[in-house]
Specification:
Polyamine Oxidase, Chain A, domain 2, seven-stranded mixed beta sheet, FAD/NAD(P)-binding domain, binds flavin-adenine dinucleotide
Length: about 425
C-alpha cells in the first residue's frame, strides 16, 4: 500500500514513520526547502534558534511524544526540567509590576503567596478537581474559577501559564480542556529540553522513514488531490502525480480542504464539517530570542512572568544543553501570546516585549538575536487548544494530523503525538 503525507512538520513525520514501520510505502511531500515545519532549528551565529518551538517538550522524557519516539526507535535525549517552573512575583504583594523588586518562587509554592481566604479556596478547588468532584463541562476556565475565587495574582498566573503553553488567555480555553491539560501534567510530569534542539527529533524521524523505504521530498508543494467516488487516489505536487491508497495531511483541516477541489463538497457530511471548521482559529504569538554572557534563570525549566506587559514566560535552553549556544553564551527564548486584533500593531507589541525584558533583567544587557511573529499559516497553534477537530475528513482515506488535530488535553507537540495515535487507530479501522 502507498501512503502520501502532505507536509513534513512533526505531525507528518511522526505519522510517516509509523506508517513506514507498518509496511506502507510512504512519500512525504514538503512545500519548503527545509524539513520539520515549525519544529526545526535555525542556526544563527552559532545559536540554535528555531522555526517555532522553544526546544521544549511539555511533558519531557515521560510524555506522549517521548514515548512515541522511543517506540519508533528514535535516538533522542530529553533533559527533564527541574524545577518544572518558577514564577516571578513582585516582592510586595500590592505591586503590579517588577519595578520595585521581585522574587522567583517554585510554582508549587504559589498558593503560599496568596491571601489566607484565597489560599483556602484554592486548596478546596484543587482537592475537588483531584478527586474528580469538580468536572465542569461548560464555561471558559477563567470565567469558571472566578465564580469561586477572585484574586489578581491568580488571574495573572492563569494568563501567564495559558499564554506560555497555549498562546491564549485563560479565558480562551474551555474548563474541560484545561482540566484535561492538568490531568496530563499529573500523569506525565513536567517539561524537558531536547538535546540538540528540535532538529534532533526531526533528523531521527527522517532517518526512520528512509530506513524503512520511505522518502521525504522538500520543495514539493501539494496543489491538488484527485478524487474518485469519495476516495482520494492521487496527490498532485510540483507537476508530478503521486498515486495514494492513503493520504495524511499535516497542513490542517481548512488548508487541506482548499486543495481538495470542489468534488469534496458533494460528499456526505461535508456541509456540517465545513460549518464546524469555521469556528476554528489559529493562535498567534511572538518570540524574542536573546543571548547573554551569564545565566539569567537558575534552571532549565520555565520562568513564568505574570507581572509583565506582554511576555508570558521564557526558558534558558542552554541550562539544559549548553551546545545550543556558542561556548560561554546563554540562549533564552521568551514567548508572548499575541491577541489576533493586535497583529496590525505588531511593532508596538514587539516594543512592549522589549520593555518587559528591561524590567525582568534590570542592569543586564541581553543581545537580541531574533524576533519572530507567528500567526496565520505559520501560527503557534493551528487551532486554539480545545478547538481541535479530530483526524477524520469527509474523504474516507484522507486523515489530518498535526496541531489542528491534537489529542485531548495535549499541550502543543504532546497533543500532536496524541493526535497521531488517534489517527493511526482511525486508519486501522
Ligand atoms: P507544521 O510544523 O506547520 O508542519 C506543516 C508542514 O506542512 C510545514 O513544513 C509546511 O511548510 C508544510 N506545508 C504546508 N502546506 C503545504 C502544501 N500545500 N504542500 C506541502 N507541504 C505543505 N510546541 C512545543 O511542544 N514546545 C514548545 O516549546 C513550543 N513552542 C512554540 C513556540 C512558538 C513561537 C511556536 C510558533 C510554536 C511552538 N510550539 C511549541 C508548537 C509547535 O512548534 C507546533 O505545534 C508544531 O511544530 C506543529 O507541527 P505540525 O506538524 O502540526 O505543523
Amino acid at each position: 500500500l502507498t501512503a502520501v503525507v502532505i507536509g513534513a512538520g512533526l505531525g507528518g513525520l511522526l505519522t510517516a514513520a509509523q506508517l513506514s514501520l507498518k509496511g506502507y510505502k510512504v512519500t512525504v511531500l514538503e512545500r519548503l526547502s527545509i524539513i520539520g515545519g515549525r519544529f526545526m532549528n535555525i542556526e544563527y551565529q552559532g545559536y540554535q534558534l528555531s522555526t517555532g518551538a522553544l526546544h521544549m517538550l511539555p511533558h519531557g522524557n515521560r510524555g506522549p511524544l517521548a514515548q512515541m519516539l522511543q517506540k519508533l526507535g528514535a535516538n533522542v535525549t530529553v533533559i527533564p526540567s527541574v524545577p518544572m517552573a518558577t514564577v516571578r512575583i513582585p516582592k510586595n504583594v500590592a505591586e503590579t509590576d517588577y519595578k520595585n523588586g521581585f522574587m522567583d518562587i517554585p510554582h508549587v509554592e504559589f498558593k503560599k503567596h496568596l491571601a489566607a481566604k484565597n489560599k483556602m479556596m484554592m486548596v478546596l478547588l484543587t482537592l475537588g478537581y483531584k478527586i474528580k468532584l469538580i468536572r465542569p463541562k461548560e464555561a471558559r476556565f477563567k470565567s469558571w474559577y472566578s465564580r469561586y475565587i477572585q484574586d489578581d495574582r491568580i488571574d495573572r498566573c492563569a494568563d501567564s501559564f495559558s499564554g506560555w503553553a497555549l498562546s491564549t488567555t485563560a479565558d480562551e480555553v474551555t474548563t474541560e480542556e484545561m482540566f484535561a491539560i492538568f490531568d496530563n501534567v499529573y500523569k506525565y510530569g513536567g517539561p524537558g529540553i531536547v538535546v540538540g534542539g528540535c532538529k534532533s527529533i526531526i533528523d531521527e524521524l527522517v532517518r526512520i522513514i528512509e530506513e524503512n523505504g520511505g522518502s521525504v521530498q522538500p520543495k514539493k508543494e501539494v496543489t491538488g488531490l484527485l478524487m474518485q467516488e469519495g476516495v482520494c487516489t492521487c496527490v498532485l505536487a510540483g507537476g508530478e502525480e503521486f498515486h495514494a491508497d492513503l493520504v495524511v495531511s499535516d497542513i490542517g483541516h481548512k488548508e487541506t480542504m482548499e486543495i481538495c477541489g470542489s468534488d469534496v463538497e458533494k460528499l456526505d457530511g461535508y456541509a456540517a464539517y465545513a460549518e464546524k471548521l469555521k469556528a476554528v482559529n489559529p493562535s498567534a504569538g511572538l518570540k524574542i530570542c536573546f543571548a547573554i554572557d551569564e545565566p539569567l534563570i537558575e534552571h532549565g525549566g520555565i520562568l513564568l512572568t505574570p507581572y509583565t506587559r506582554r511576555i508570558n514566560g521564557m526558558n534558558e535552553v542552554t541550562n539544559a544543553d549548553p551546545n545550543l549556544a556558542p561556548p560561554g553564551k546563554h540562549l533564552i527564548m521568551a514567548h508572548q501570546r499575541t491577541a489576533l486584533d493586535r497583529l496590525d500593531f505588531i511593532e508596538e507589541e514587539i516594543d512592549l516585549g522589549l520593555e518587559d525584558l528591561k524590567d525582568l533583567f534590570p542592569g543586564k544587557k541581553p543581545e537580541i538575536l531574533m524576533i519572530q511573529v507567528h500567526h496565520g499559516r505559520w501560527p503557534v497553534n493551528r487551532a486554539f487548544s480545545g478547538q481541535d477537530f479530530g483526524n477524520k475528513t469527509p474523504v474516507s482515506n484522507l486523515f489530518i494530523v498535526g496541531d489542528g488535530a491534537k489529542g485531548r488535553g495535549g499541550i502543543e507537540v504532546e497533543g500532536i503525538a496524541l493526535g497521531v495515535e488517534n489517527a493511526m487507530s482511525d486508519i486501522a479501522e
